[in-house]
């Protein structure tokens, strides 16, 4: 028995990952696969998935399920690639409503998945799978969904600069499928007009769906030679999830 009389070590604090959600079933399937991989990497961890919109379970339903199962606390991970409205306003509002219903579950809020160096490796993995490295002299567009949050968009710009430093691209620019410029199509056209003979595009997107389809359609129409898939179920994402979870647990212990 442990010093405080427990029968043994306590189970890890459960992890509740919260994704945006999409009407496109490919999106939920891809996100679910990421967290299946997380479960395989950490078999003793109770990993659950909820969505802000379009897909069940919702966040409050998932929290109710944890509480009814006897959990006293939970790490909530925004399964988002940048910190913007959904992680700063939308999800915290849902969690505040849950807290108002009673102090039955202590919530520890994790950082978003990105930015993180492993996500650069995930981008490069998808580009390699798409054949983007097959020819020298290729420029790259890093395309995100885009946000009204200027800081979130600047994260994509910073990632583009980091990718440029990692090579072998002749130039790397950021693009946004909504809310900001340049669009993926305009970014591809501008690179071709500047003399780059070949342009590859990587969608910095968690899962296939509306925005990945928009990035692919615009980029292809503008003359991109290669368009890589959304990140989806890659090993790097699962490792980031566990790093964010472990950091949130460590912070919780530091404050206890």
- Please tally the β strands and state the result: 8
Number of separate helices? 8
The largest pleated sheet is described as: 4 strands, parallel
* N→C terminal distance: 22 Å
**Whole-number radius of gyration?**
20 Å
Q: Quickly give the structural class.
A: alpha/beta
Give the helix/strand layout.
Layout: E1 15-19, H1 25-41, E2 47-51, H2 59-68, E3 73-78, H3 85-100, E4 106-109, H4 117-130, E5 138-144, H5 150-166, E6 172-176, H6 184-193, E7 198-203, H7 210-222, E8 226-228, H8 235-255
Parallel strand pairs: 1-2, 1-3, 3-4, 5-6, 5-7, 7-8
Helix pairs in contact: 1-8, 4-8, 6-7
Keywords: Lyase, Metal-binding
GO molecular function, one term: metal ion binding
InterPro entries: CbiX-like (IPR002762), Sirohydro_Cobaltochel/CbiX (IPR050963)
Overview of the molecule:
The protein is built from eight helices and eight strands; from the N terminus they run E-H-E-H-E-H-E-H-E-H-E-H-E-H-E-H. The protein folds into two domains: 15-114 and 234-255, Rossmann fold, CATH 3.40.50; 117-228, 3-Layer(aba) Sandwich (Rossmann fold). The longest helix is centred in the C-terminal third of the chain and has 21 residues, at 235-255. Helices cover 46% and strands 16% of the residues. The two termini are 22 Å apart. It has helices at residues 25-41, 59-68, 85-100, 117-130, 150-166, 184-193, 210-222, 235-255, and strands at residues 15-19, 47-51, 73-78, 106-109, 138-144, 172-176, 198-203, 226-228. With 256 residues, it is an alpha/beta fold. The protein has a four-stranded parallel sheet, sandwiched between helices. A four-stranded parallel sheet has the order 6-5-7-8, with helices on both faces.
């Amino acid at each position: 028995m442990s010093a405080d009389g427990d029968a043994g070590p306590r189970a890890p604090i459960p992890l509740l990952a919260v994704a945006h959600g999409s009407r496109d079933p490919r999106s939920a399937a891809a996100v679910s696969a990421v967290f299946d991989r997380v479960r395989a990497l950490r078999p003793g961890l109770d990993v659950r998935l909820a969505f802000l919109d379009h897909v069940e379970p919702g966040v409050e339903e998932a929290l109710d399920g944890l509480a009814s199962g006897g959990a006293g606390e939970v790490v909530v991970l925004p399964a988002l690639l940048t910190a913007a409205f959904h992680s700063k306003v939308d999800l915290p509002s849902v969690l505040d409503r849950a807290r108002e219903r009673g102090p039955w579950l202590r919530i520890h809020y994790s950082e978003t998945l990105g930015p993180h160096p492993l996500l650069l490796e995930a981008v490069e993995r998808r580009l390699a799978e798409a054949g983007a490295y097959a020819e020298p002299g290729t420029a790259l567009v890093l395309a995100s969904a885009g946000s009204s949050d200027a800081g979130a968009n600047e994260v994509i710009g910073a990632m583009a600069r980091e990718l440029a430093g990692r090579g072998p691209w002749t130039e790397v620019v950021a693009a946004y499928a909504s809310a900001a410029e340049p669009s993926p199509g305009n970014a591809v056209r501008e690179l071709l007009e500047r003399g780059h003979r070949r342009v590859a595009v990587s969608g910095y997107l968690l899962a296939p769906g509306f925005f990945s389809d928009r990035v692919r359609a615009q980029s292809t129409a503008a003359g991109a030679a290669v368009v890589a898939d959304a990140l989806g179920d890659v090993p790097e994402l699962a490792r980031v999830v566990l790093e964010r979870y472990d950091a949130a647990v460590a912070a919780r212990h530091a404050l206890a």
